[in-house]
Amino acid sequence: MGGSTCCVVNCKNTATNSNCRFFRFPRMSYKLEQRRRCISAIRRVNPDGSSWSPTSNDLICSAHFVGNKKSEEQNSPSYVPTIFPTVYKSRKINVTME
């Protein structure tokens, strides 16, 4: 993933300027709930205000996961991203652990 950049708003991490790992959004049918929760946590919108949906090229860096790595365990704090730039601090993150 040579030209990798993080899709989180105001995150400047790239494959060339950080030691981060980059993860794709889950796409398998049995991981759709994890995908939905990741998208909800990121809270990104399109320029026209419509809902954003990641493409196969969109990646999220390890800096947004507890312990700097994504977990596949649903009860893990690093199952979805929870660490964001300060622009996110003014808005509540609504990600439920089911």
UniProtKB/TrEMBL annotation:
Protein name from the UniProt record: THAP-type domain-containing protein
Keyword Ubl conjugation: no
Annotated InterPro entries: THAP_Znf
Residue ranges of every copy of the THAP-type domain listed in the record: 1-84
Organism: Nasonia vitripennis (Parasitic wasp)
Pfam families: THAP
Entry keywords, A to Z: DNA-binding, Metal-binding, Zinc, Zinc-finger
Domain of life from the UniProt record: Eukaryota
Molecular function per GO: DNA binding; zinc ion binding
